[in-house]
């Protein structure tokens, strides 16, 4: 069954004759008759009663035409929807982002994207572990994700967009509070406030301290960055965060150890071309990351 055959059936039903339908379709009448007969043979039943030069739908033909009209209407809407996505006038972009990144990078990007594509829906998903985003990308739940580099799954491709320094958060009255930079080893004897163990920022903190030769003494854990900052400000300990995640805290000290940084990338599925809206969002996000002023 071919799409053009369905359109031919509708044309004959409207015109009431093969000759008028052929004229409307700019088609030779014998060709039209052949296509209708082929379809009737495939269906195993006649769609039209031939009454001299006139044709009328059989009972089976009336049932068939009712469904064909609905199917072609759905197809036309599907084509219009695809065209809207292609022209950035519709569709949806699903994006995964780490909470520690979203507040620093996304507001301006979302505003720019909304100006460019006011009819495109943006769906944001936050998660604290980059590996979970990789799984969501792989099973099609996300179009793009901002995650820690390097990513592990071979089915993903992407680019690095940010390499941000790690900074120490210390209480305002801490002896190190007026330093312009410091070595991680200077925090070896401190008590730490940290995210819970299943969070990516906790894993990052432990990795950085281990590279500096010590295990951090974590005495308070939380699940919220704002709570972490509040506890450090209250003197319950120090902490280490990437620069974006430390936004809003008044006393941050850059760490000058080699490799004390977090690299972020934006990834998508290798075998699935990005939709035009998703491709635009990727470019806007990459541009915003590149334009961030460096603090060091």
UniProtKB/TrEMBL annotation:
<dbReference type="InterPro" id="IPR036388">
    <property type="entry name" value="WH-like_DNA-bd_sf"/>
</dbReference>
<dbReference type="InterPro" id="IPR005119">
    <property type="entry name" value="LysR_subst-bd"/>
</dbReference>
<keyword id="KW-0238">DNA-binding</keyword>
<comment type="similarity">
    <text>Belongs to the LysR transcriptional regulatory family.</text>
</comment>
<dbReference type="Pfam" id="PF03466">
    <property type="entry name" value="LysR_substrate"/>
</dbReference>
<dbReference type="InterPro" id="IPR036390">
    <property type="entry name" value="WH_DNA-bd_sf"/>
</dbReference>
<dbReference type="GO" id="GO:0032993">
    <property type="term" value="C:protein-DNA complex"/>
</dbReference>
<feature type="domain" description="HTH lysR-type">
    <location>
        <begin position="1"/>
        <end position="58"/>
    </location>
</feature>
<dbReference type="GO" id="GO:0003700">
    <property type="term" value="F:DNA-binding transcription factor activity"/>
</dbReference>
<protein>
    <submittedName>
        <fullName>LysR family transcriptional regulator, hydrogen peroxide-inducible genes activator</fullName>
    </submittedName>
</protein>
<dbReference type="Pfam" id="PF00126">
    <property type="entry name" value="HTH_1"/>
</dbReference>
<dbReference type="GO" id="GO:0003677">
    <property type="term" value="F:DNA binding"/>
</dbReference>
<keyword id="KW-0804">Transcription</keyword>
<dbReference type="InterPro" id="IPR000847">
    <property type="entry name" value="LysR_HTH_N"/>
</dbReference>
<keyword id="KW-0805">Transcription regulation</keyword>
